[in-house]
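Q: what sequence does this backbone want?
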């Protein structure tokens, strides 16, 4: 199948994955820094390593693009 899809990031080896993370799954030292917040957005490298945690999805995509990375949303 050689169907071309529009608006997909180019595969230049710089893809990162953006996903929502419930704060109750984070370590205690992280949760103590963000009282009253139920979820954050994580930026993960292609190998699954968590690179960053940010307040919202828009900021996660902005952060990735500012670092010449191609963000992809993961559910």
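A:
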């Amino acid at each position: 199948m050689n169907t071309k899809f529009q608006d997909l990031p180019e595969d230049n080896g710089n893809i990162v994955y953006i996903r929502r993370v419930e704060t109750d799954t984070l370590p205690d030292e992280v949760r103590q820094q963000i009282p009253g917040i139920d979820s954050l957005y994580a930026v993960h490298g292609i190998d699954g390593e968590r690179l960053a945690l940010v307040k919202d999805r828009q900021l996660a995509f902005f952060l990735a693009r500012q670092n010449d990375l191609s963000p992809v949303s993961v559910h």
